[in-house]
Amino acid sequence: MTVRLRVAPSPTGDPHVGTAYMSLFNLAFVRQQGGQFVLRIEDTDRARFQADSEQQVFDMLAWLGLQWDEGPDKGGPYAPYRQSERLDTYTPYVEQLLAQGNAYHCWCTPARLQQMREDQQARKVPTGYDRLCVGKTREQRAELPGCSDVPVVRMLVPDDAPLSFVDLIRGQVNAPRPDDQVILKADGFPTYHLAVVVDDHLMGITHVVRGEEWISSTPKHVLLYDWLGWERPAFAHMPLLRNVDKSKISKRKNPAARLTWFVEQGYLPEALLNFLGLLGYSLPSGEEIFSFAEMSASFDWTRVNTVGPVFDLDKLGWLNGHYLRALAPEDLQARLIPFLRAAGLYDDSAAHRSLLAGAGPLIQTRMAVLSECVDLLRFLFVTDREFVVQDAAREKSLGDAGPVLLALAEALAPLEEWTTASVQTAMDAALIDRLGLKRGKAYAPVRAAVCGSLISPPLPESMALLGQQRVLARLRAAL
Ligand code: GLU
Questions:
Q1: What are 375-402's pLDDT values in tens digits?
Q2: Pairwise CA distance, residues 49 & 195, whole Å
Q3: Which CATH class is domain 327-381?
Protein backbone atom coordinates (compact mmCIF):
# COMPACT_ATOMS: atom_id res chain seq x y z
CA MET A 1 0.00 0.00 0.00
CA THR A 2 1.25 3.49 -0.82
CA VAL A 3 0.77 5.77 2.12
CA ARG A 4 -0.85 9.13 1.41
CA LEU A 5 -0.88 11.81 4.09
CA ARG A 6 -1.95 15.41 4.08
CA VAL A 7 -1.74 18.66 5.90
CA ALA A 8 -4.86 20.76 5.73
CA PRO A 9 -4.32 24.30 6.96
CA SER A 10 -7.07 26.89 7.02
CA PRO A 11 -6.02 30.20 5.45
CA THR A 12 -6.86 32.43 8.40
CA GLY A 13 -3.93 34.83 8.60
CA ASP A 14 -0.22 34.31 9.19
CA PRO A 15 0.54 30.60 9.03
CA HIS A 16 0.66 29.03 12.49
CA VAL A 17 3.76 27.20 13.67
CA GLY A 18 1.50 24.17 14.18
CA THR A 19 1.12 23.87 10.40
CA ALA A 20 4.87 23.39 10.09
CA TYR A 21 4.88 21.00 13.03
CA MET A 22 2.14 18.81 11.49
CA SER A 23 3.78 18.95 8.06
CA LEU A 24 7.12 17.84 9.50
CA PHE A 25 5.69 14.77 11.23
CA ASN A 26 3.47 13.86 8.27
CA LEU A 27 6.38 14.19 5.90
CA ALA A 28 8.86 12.29 8.07
CA PHE A 29 6.57 9.27 7.76
CA VAL A 30 5.69 9.83 4.09
CA ARG A 31 9.31 10.02 2.96
CA GLN A 32 10.26 6.99 5.01
CA GLN A 33 7.47 5.00 3.38
CA GLY A 34 7.93 6.35 -0.13
CA GLY A 35 4.39 7.73 -0.14
CA GLN A 36 2.79 11.02 -1.15
CA PHE A 37 2.12 14.20 0.77
CA VAL A 38 -0.85 16.37 -0.09
CA LEU A 39 -1.34 20.03 0.80
CA ARG A 40 -5.05 20.84 0.97
CA ILE A 41 -6.40 24.27 1.74
CA GLU A 42 -9.44 24.12 4.02
CA ASP A 43 -11.08 27.44 3.28
CA THR A 44 -14.71 26.70 4.09
CA ASP A 45 -14.77 29.09 7.04
CA ARG A 46 -15.46 32.21 5.00
CA ALA A 47 -15.75 34.45 8.05
CA ARG A 48 -12.09 33.84 9.00
CA PHE A 49 -10.70 33.57 5.45
CA GLN A 50 -7.75 35.82 4.52
CA ALA A 51 -6.72 36.04 0.89
CA ASP A 52 -2.93 36.25 1.21
CA SER A 53 -2.71 33.54 3.82
CA GLU A 54 -2.59 30.66 1.35
CA GLN A 55 0.49 32.03 -0.40
CA GLN A 56 2.15 32.50 2.98
CA VAL A 57 1.51 28.84 3.76
CA PHE A 58 3.22 27.86 0.51
CA ASP A 59 6.13 30.21 1.19
CA MET A 60 6.68 29.13 4.77
CA LEU A 61 6.56 25.39 4.08
CA ALA A 62 8.89 25.87 1.13
CA TRP A 63 11.26 27.94 3.31
CA LEU A 64 11.39 25.01 5.72
CA GLY A 65 12.03 22.60 2.86
CA LEU A 66 8.81 20.71 3.60
CA GLN A 67 7.78 19.92 0.03
CA TRP A 68 4.35 18.60 -0.87
CA ASP A 69 3.67 16.37 -3.87
CA GLU A 70 0.15 17.59 -4.65
CA GLY A 71 -1.54 20.86 -3.82
CA PRO A 72 -3.40 23.90 -5.16
CA ASP A 73 -0.24 25.33 -6.72
CA LYS A 74 1.11 22.00 -8.01
CA GLY A 75 -2.08 20.25 -9.09
CA GLY A 76 -2.33 16.47 -8.93
CA PRO A 77 -4.69 13.61 -9.68
CA TYR A 78 -7.25 14.71 -7.06
CA ALA A 79 -7.46 18.41 -7.91
CA PRO A 80 -8.85 20.82 -6.94
CA TYR A 81 -7.06 20.97 -3.59
CA ARG A 82 -8.95 23.99 -2.28
CA GLN A 83 -12.19 23.10 -0.53
CA SER A 84 -13.98 26.22 -1.76
CA GLU A 85 -13.51 24.86 -5.31
CA ARG A 86 -14.99 21.50 -4.36
CA LEU A 87 -18.43 22.58 -3.12
CA ASP A 88 -20.25 20.41 -5.68
CA THR A 89 -18.30 17.41 -4.45
CA TYR A 90 -19.94 17.46 -1.04
CA THR A 91 -23.60 17.83 -2.05
CA PRO A 92 -24.27 14.21 -3.13
CA TYR A 93 -22.96 12.95 0.19
CA VAL A 94 -25.23 15.30 2.11
CA GLU A 95 -28.14 13.97 0.04
CA GLN A 96 -27.07 10.39 0.72
CA LEU A 97 -26.89 10.96 4.46
CA LEU A 98 -30.31 12.68 4.45
CA ALA A 99 -31.81 9.83 2.41
CA GLN A 100 -30.30 7.21 4.74
CA GLY A 101 -31.74 8.98 7.77
CA ASN A 102 -28.24 9.69 9.16
CA ALA A 103 -28.76 13.43 8.85
CA TYR A 104 -31.63 15.92 9.08
CA HIS A 105 -32.52 19.50 8.26
CA CYS A 106 -32.46 21.99 11.10
CA TRP A 107 -34.12 25.40 10.81
CA CYS A 108 -33.32 26.74 14.25
CA THR A 109 -32.14 30.34 14.17
CA PRO A 110 -28.88 31.31 15.92
CA ALA A 111 -31.00 33.23 18.46
CA ARG A 112 -33.04 30.12 19.31
CA LEU A 113 -29.89 28.01 19.67
CA GLN A 114 -28.41 30.63 21.97
CA GLN A 115 -31.56 30.66 24.10
CA MET A 116 -31.57 26.84 24.21
CA ARG A 117 -27.93 26.80 25.43
CA GLU A 118 -28.63 29.37 28.11
CA ASP A 119 -31.62 27.37 29.36
CA GLN A 120 -29.52 24.20 29.45
CA GLN A 121 -26.78 25.98 31.38
CA ALA A 122 -29.30 27.42 33.82
CA ARG A 123 -30.72 23.93 34.40
CA LYS A 124 -27.17 22.58 34.69
CA VAL A 125 -27.76 19.89 32.06
CA PRO A 126 -25.23 19.11 29.33
CA THR A 127 -25.47 21.54 26.43
CA GLY A 128 -26.22 20.20 22.98
CA TYR A 129 -28.77 20.46 20.23
CA ASP A 130 -32.18 19.43 21.57
CA ARG A 131 -33.40 18.00 18.24
CA LEU A 132 -36.41 20.25 17.97
CA CYS A 133 -36.30 19.87 14.16
CA VAL A 134 -35.91 16.08 14.02
CA GLY A 135 -38.78 14.40 12.15
CA LYS A 136 -40.42 17.70 11.20
CA THR A 137 -41.18 19.08 7.76
CA ARG A 138 -40.45 22.71 7.02
CA GLU A 139 -44.17 23.51 7.50
CA GLN A 140 -44.40 21.71 10.83
CA ARG A 141 -41.28 23.44 12.09
CA ALA A 142 -42.48 26.86 10.94
CA GLU A 143 -45.32 26.72 13.46
CA LEU A 144 -42.76 26.82 16.27
CA PRO A 145 -40.69 29.89 17.20
CA GLY A 146 -37.09 30.57 16.06
CA CYS A 147 -37.43 29.09 12.57
CA SER A 148 -35.24 30.41 9.75
CA ASP A 149 -35.85 30.15 6.00
CA VAL A 150 -32.68 28.31 5.09
CA PRO A 151 -31.89 25.11 6.97
CA VAL A 152 -28.56 23.61 7.95
CA VAL A 153 -27.99 19.85 7.87
CA ARG A 154 -27.04 18.02 11.07
CA MET A 155 -25.75 14.51 11.80
CA LEU A 156 -28.20 12.33 13.74
CA VAL A 157 -25.70 10.88 16.18
CA PRO A 158 -27.01 7.50 17.45
CA ASP A 159 -26.93 6.50 21.11
CA ASP A 160 -24.47 3.73 20.34
CA ALA A 161 -22.07 5.88 18.29
CA PRO A 162 -18.54 4.44 18.28
CA LEU A 163 -16.63 6.66 20.70
CA SER A 164 -13.29 4.93 20.88
CA PHE A 165 -10.70 4.53 18.19
CA VAL A 166 -7.10 3.40 17.89
CA ASP A 167 -4.55 6.16 17.58
CA LEU A 168 -1.09 5.40 16.17
CA ILE A 169 0.58 7.45 18.89
CA ARG A 170 -1.79 7.05 21.83
CA GLY A 171 -3.24 3.56 21.37
CA GLN A 172 -6.90 3.21 22.39
CA VAL A 173 -8.53 6.63 22.78
CA ASN A 174 -11.97 7.30 24.24
CA ALA A 175 -13.69 10.50 23.17
CA PRO A 176 -16.89 12.07 24.49
CA ARG A 177 -20.20 11.55 22.69
CA PRO A 178 -20.57 14.21 20.00
CA ASP A 179 -23.44 16.62 19.58
CA ASP A 180 -25.58 16.51 16.39
CA GLN A 181 -22.85 18.24 14.42
CA VAL A 182 -23.81 20.60 11.58
CA ILE A 183 -22.31 19.26 8.35
CA LEU A 184 -23.80 21.69 5.83
CA LYS A 185 -24.12 25.37 6.70
CA ALA A 186 -26.87 27.75 5.62
CA ASP A 187 -24.42 29.42 3.21
CA GLY A 188 -24.14 26.12 1.31
CA PHE A 189 -20.59 25.47 2.53
CA PRO A 190 -19.87 22.17 4.24
CA THR A 191 -18.40 22.37 7.71
CA TYR A 192 -14.89 21.13 8.36
CA HIS A 193 -16.23 17.78 9.61
CA LEU A 194 -17.97 16.78 6.41
CA ALA A 195 -15.39 18.26 4.06
CA VAL A 196 -12.44 16.65 5.83
CA VAL A 197 -13.97 13.17 5.67
CA VAL A 198 -15.12 13.44 2.06
CA ASP A 199 -11.81 14.89 0.89
CA ASP A 200 -9.63 12.51 2.87
CA HIS A 201 -11.58 9.61 1.40
CA LEU A 202 -11.67 10.86 -2.20
CA MET A 203 -7.99 11.85 -2.07
CA GLY A 204 -7.02 8.38 -0.90
CA ILE A 205 -5.59 9.58 2.42
CA THR A 206 -4.40 6.57 4.41
CA HIS A 207 -3.25 8.30 7.60
CA VAL A 208 -4.87 11.34 9.19
CA VAL A 209 -2.21 13.07 11.29
CA ARG A 210 -3.34 16.22 13.05
CA GLY A 211 -3.38 18.09 16.33
CA GLU A 212 -4.68 16.74 19.61
CA GLU A 213 -7.49 19.31 19.56
CA TRP A 214 -9.27 17.17 16.95
CA ILE A 215 -9.53 14.05 19.14
CA SER A 216 -13.04 14.96 20.24
CA SER A 217 -14.08 15.33 16.58
CA THR A 218 -12.79 11.94 15.51
CA PRO A 219 -15.95 10.02 16.58
CA LYS A 220 -17.98 12.26 14.26
CA HIS A 221 -15.59 11.50 11.44
CA VAL A 222 -15.64 7.77 12.17
CA LEU A 223 -19.46 7.86 12.02
CA LEU A 224 -19.37 9.61 8.65
CA TYR A 225 -16.90 7.04 7.26
CA ASP A 226 -19.15 4.23 8.48
CA TRP A 227 -22.38 5.77 7.17
CA LEU A 228 -20.87 6.42 3.78
CA GLY A 229 -19.51 2.87 3.65
CA TRP A 230 -15.89 3.97 3.46
CA GLU A 231 -12.83 2.42 5.02
CA ARG A 232 -11.56 4.47 7.97
CA PRO A 233 -8.03 5.87 7.69
CA ALA A 234 -5.49 5.45 10.48
CA PHE A 235 -5.47 8.35 12.96
CA ALA A 236 -2.58 9.96 14.82
CA HIS A 237 -3.10 12.99 17.05
CA MET A 238 0.01 15.03 17.73
CA PRO A 239 0.44 16.78 21.07
CA LEU A 240 -0.39 20.47 21.30
CA LEU A 241 2.59 22.83 21.44
CA ARG A 242 2.64 24.75 24.69
CA ASN A 243 4.14 27.95 26.04
CA VAL A 244 6.59 27.66 28.90
CA ASP A 245 3.63 28.31 31.27
CA LYS A 246 1.91 25.28 29.64
CA SER A 247 -0.82 27.33 27.95
CA LYS A 248 -1.64 26.58 24.33
CA ILE A 249 0.47 28.54 21.82
CA SER A 250 -1.71 31.14 20.17
CA LYS A 251 -0.93 33.78 17.59
CA ARG A 252 -2.61 36.41 19.73
CA LYS A 253 -0.38 35.84 22.75
CA ASN A 254 2.93 34.58 21.40
CA PRO A 255 4.70 36.06 18.38
CA ALA A 256 6.51 32.73 17.97
CA ALA A 257 3.19 31.14 17.00
CA ARG A 258 3.55 32.88 13.62
CA LEU A 259 5.92 31.19 11.20
CA THR A 260 6.88 34.49 9.62
CA TRP A 261 8.28 35.59 12.99
CA PHE A 262 11.10 33.03 12.69
CA VAL A 263 12.03 34.37 9.27
CA GLU A 264 11.98 37.97 10.52
CA GLN A 265 14.17 37.12 13.50
CA GLY A 266 16.65 35.22 11.39
CA TYR A 267 16.30 31.69 12.64
CA LEU A 268 17.62 29.14 10.18
CA PRO A 269 15.00 26.83 8.73
CA GLU A 270 17.16 23.80 9.51
CA ALA A 271 17.31 24.86 13.17
CA LEU A 272 13.55 25.40 13.37
CA LEU A 273 12.90 22.00 11.77
CA ASN A 274 15.24 20.29 14.22
CA PHE A 275 13.54 22.15 17.07
CA LEU A 276 10.04 21.16 15.93
CA GLY A 277 11.24 17.59 15.52
CA LEU A 278 12.55 17.56 19.08
CA LEU A 279 9.14 18.73 20.30
CA GLY A 280 7.71 15.27 20.47
CA TYR A 281 10.35 13.11 18.83
CA SER A 282 13.74 11.73 19.75
CA LEU A 283 16.19 9.67 17.78
CA PRO A 284 16.81 6.19 19.15
CA SER A 285 20.41 7.33 19.82
CA GLY A 286 19.16 10.23 21.96
CA GLU A 287 21.13 12.67 19.77
CA GLU A 288 19.39 16.07 19.88
CA ILE A 289 20.84 17.51 16.71
CA PHE A 290 19.33 15.79 13.71
CA SER A 291 18.38 16.48 10.13
CA PHE A 292 15.05 15.80 8.47
CA ALA A 293 16.62 12.81 6.70
CA GLU A 294 17.75 11.29 10.00
CA MET A 295 14.38 11.88 11.62
CA SER A 296 12.56 10.37 8.66
CA ALA A 297 14.83 7.33 8.46
CA SER A 298 14.26 6.43 12.11
CA PHE A 299 10.62 7.54 12.25
CA ASP A 300 8.24 5.47 14.33
CA TRP A 301 4.83 6.64 15.61
CA THR A 302 5.39 4.91 18.92
CA ARG A 303 8.41 7.15 19.53
CA VAL A 304 6.24 10.28 19.41
CA ASN A 305 5.79 11.73 22.87
CA THR A 306 2.34 13.00 23.81
CA VAL A 307 3.27 15.01 26.89
CA GLY A 308 2.61 18.63 25.81
CA PRO A 309 5.99 19.69 24.42
CA VAL A 310 7.10 23.08 25.69
CA PHE A 311 8.07 25.68 23.14
CA ASP A 312 11.35 26.71 24.70
CA LEU A 313 12.99 29.49 22.70
CA ASP A 314 16.26 29.07 24.60
CA LYS A 315 16.54 25.61 23.14
CA LEU A 316 15.80 26.95 19.69
CA GLY A 317 18.47 29.63 20.19
CA TRP A 318 20.98 26.95 21.09
CA LEU A 319 20.11 24.92 18.00
CA ASN A 320 20.24 28.03 15.84
CA GLY A 321 23.73 28.82 17.09
CA HIS A 322 24.82 25.32 16.19
CA TYR A 323 23.50 25.52 12.63
CA LEU A 324 24.80 29.08 12.19
CA ARG A 325 28.33 28.06 13.07
CA ALA A 326 28.16 25.17 10.62
CA LEU A 327 27.33 27.37 7.60
CA ALA A 328 29.90 27.63 4.81
CA PRO A 329 31.10 31.23 4.23
CA GLU A 330 29.15 31.84 1.00
CA ASP A 331 26.03 30.32 2.49
CA LEU A 332 26.26 32.57 5.54
CA GLN A 333 26.74 35.64 3.32
CA ALA A 334 23.73 34.75 1.20
CA ARG A 335 21.58 34.47 4.30
CA LEU A 336 22.80 37.77 5.77
CA ILE A 337 22.12 39.80 2.64
CA PRO A 338 18.30 40.02 3.00
CA PHE A 339 18.68 41.48 6.50
CA LEU A 340 21.31 44.03 5.50
CA ARG A 341 19.32 44.93 2.42
CA ALA A 342 16.10 45.41 4.38
CA ALA A 343 17.98 47.74 6.72
CA GLY A 344 19.08 49.80 3.71
CA LEU A 345 22.72 48.92 4.28
CA TYR A 346 23.56 46.67 1.36
CA ASP A 347 23.49 47.27 -2.39
CA ASP A 348 25.37 44.26 -3.80
CA SER A 349 28.15 46.41 -5.26
CA ALA A 350 31.60 44.82 -5.55
CA ALA A 351 32.68 46.88 -2.53
CA HIS A 352 29.79 45.62 -0.44
CA ARG A 353 30.33 42.06 -1.53
CA SER A 354 33.93 42.16 -0.50
CA LEU A 355 33.11 43.82 2.84
CA LEU A 356 30.55 41.12 3.54
CA ALA A 357 32.99 38.34 2.67
CA GLY A 358 35.36 39.78 5.27
CA ALA A 359 32.68 40.47 7.86
CA GLY A 360 30.85 37.12 7.75
CA PRO A 361 33.50 35.13 9.63
CA LEU A 362 33.83 37.94 12.22
CA ILE A 363 30.22 37.63 13.33
CA GLN A 364 29.45 33.98 12.64
CA THR A 365 29.93 32.94 16.26
CA ARG A 366 28.59 36.21 17.72
CA MET A 367 25.02 36.03 16.45
CA ALA A 368 22.19 34.06 18.03
CA VAL A 369 19.92 34.95 15.09
CA LEU A 370 20.73 36.40 11.67
CA SER A 371 18.91 39.69 12.26
CA GLU A 372 21.64 40.65 14.74
CA CYS A 373 23.98 41.19 11.79
CA VAL A 374 22.33 44.56 11.18
CA ASP A 375 23.51 46.08 14.45
CA LEU A 376 26.84 44.29 14.38
CA LEU A 377 27.73 45.40 10.84
CA ARG A 378 26.05 48.78 10.53
CA PHE A 379 29.36 50.60 11.12
CA LEU A 380 30.87 48.85 8.13
CA PHE A 381 28.17 49.44 5.54
CA VAL A 382 26.79 52.78 6.64
CA THR A 383 27.84 55.78 4.56
CA ASP A 384 30.25 58.19 6.23
CA ARG A 385 27.57 60.85 6.27
CA GLU A 386 25.13 58.57 8.07
CA PHE A 387 27.56 57.15 10.58
CA VAL A 388 26.69 58.15 14.16
CA VAL A 389 28.04 57.12 17.53
CA GLN A 390 25.15 55.78 19.61
CA ASP A 391 24.33 57.76 22.74
CA ALA A 392 25.09 54.86 25.07
CA ALA A 393 28.52 54.33 23.53
CA ARG A 394 29.33 58.05 23.65
CA GLU A 395 28.28 58.42 27.28
CA LYS A 396 29.95 55.29 28.50
CA SER A 397 33.19 55.29 26.53
CA LEU A 398 34.02 58.67 25.02
CA GLY A 399 33.90 61.02 28.03
CA ASP A 400 37.62 61.31 28.77
CA ALA A 401 38.92 59.41 25.76
CA GLY A 402 40.75 62.32 24.08
CA PRO A 403 44.30 61.19 24.86
CA VAL A 404 43.58 57.60 23.85
CA LEU A 405 42.04 58.54 20.51
CA LEU A 406 44.77 61.08 19.79
CA ALA A 407 47.56 58.61 20.54
CA LEU A 408 45.91 56.00 18.37
CA ALA A 409 45.33 58.36 15.43
CA GLU A 410 49.02 59.33 15.55
CA ALA A 411 50.06 55.68 15.59
CA LEU A 412 47.76 54.60 12.78
CA ALA A 413 48.19 57.51 10.38
CA PRO A 414 51.69 56.59 9.16
CA LEU A 415 50.99 52.86 8.72
CA GLU A 416 51.89 51.76 5.21
CA GLU A 417 50.49 48.30 5.52
CA TRP A 418 46.85 48.10 6.72
CA THR A 419 46.06 44.63 7.97
CA THR A 420 44.57 43.16 11.13
CA ALA A 421 48.11 42.39 12.35
CA SER A 422 49.58 45.83 11.63
CA VAL A 423 46.57 47.60 13.16
CA GLN A 424 46.71 45.40 16.23
CA THR A 425 50.47 45.92 16.69
CA ALA A 426 50.25 49.70 16.32
CA MET A 427 47.25 49.90 18.61
CA ASP A 428 48.86 47.80 21.36
CA ALA A 429 52.12 49.72 21.12
CA ALA A 430 50.36 53.08 21.43
CA LEU A 431 47.72 52.28 24.02
CA ILE A 432 49.04 49.40 26.10
CA ASP A 433 52.79 49.85 25.98
CA ARG A 434 52.99 53.64 25.83
CA LEU A 435 49.90 54.78 27.74
CA GLY A 436 49.99 51.77 30.05
CA LEU A 437 46.29 50.95 29.67
CA LYS A 438 44.67 47.55 30.05
CA ARG A 439 43.28 46.20 26.77
CA GLY A 440 39.61 46.43 27.79
CA LYS A 441 40.00 50.05 28.88
CA ALA A 442 42.01 50.94 25.80
CA TYR A 443 39.65 49.35 23.26
CA ALA A 444 36.30 50.65 24.58
CA PRO A 445 36.67 54.26 23.34
CA VAL A 446 38.13 53.05 20.05
CA ARG A 447 35.15 50.76 19.56
CA ALA A 448 32.77 53.63 20.32
CA ALA A 449 34.53 55.99 17.94
CA VAL A 450 35.01 53.55 15.07
CA CYS A 451 32.01 51.22 15.35
CA GLY A 452 29.64 53.65 17.04
CA SER A 453 28.42 51.15 19.61
CA LEU A 454 29.31 49.22 22.75
CA ILE A 455 29.35 45.90 20.92
CA SER A 456 31.15 45.09 17.70
CA PRO A 457 32.95 42.28 15.94
CA PRO A 458 36.61 41.93 17.02
CA LEU A 459 38.12 45.40 16.86
CA PRO A 460 41.41 45.10 14.92
CA GLU A 461 39.66 42.93 12.31
CA SER A 462 36.84 45.45 12.06
CA MET A 463 39.25 48.34 11.62
CA ALA A 464 41.22 46.42 9.01
CA LEU A 465 38.03 45.88 7.03
CA LEU A 466 36.84 49.44 7.40
CA GLY A 467 40.05 50.82 5.90
CA GLN A 468 42.64 53.34 7.04
CA GLN A 469 40.97 56.50 5.76
CA ARG A 470 37.60 55.77 7.30
CA VAL A 471 39.11 54.72 10.64
CA LEU A 472 41.21 57.89 10.87
CA ALA A 473 38.26 60.05 9.88
CA ARG A 474 36.12 58.51 12.62
CA LEU A 475 38.85 58.88 15.24
CA ARG A 476 39.23 62.54 14.34
CA ALA A 477 35.50 63.09 14.31
CA ALA A 478 35.25 61.62 17.80
CA LEU A 479 38.11 63.79 18.99
N1 GLU B 1 -8.26 22.67 8.74
C2 GLU B 1 -7.91 22.00 9.96
C3 GLU B 1 -6.93 22.88 10.73
O4 GLU B 1 -6.71 23.98 10.32
C5 GLU B 1 -7.31 20.65 9.65
C6 GLU B 1 -7.45 19.62 10.73
C7 GLU B 1 -7.12 18.26 10.18
O8 GLU B 1 -5.95 18.02 9.86
O9 GLU B 1 -8.02 17.42 10.05
O10 GLU B 1 -6.39 22.54 11.73
A1: 999 999 999 899 999 999 999 998 889 9
A2: 16
A3: mainly alpha
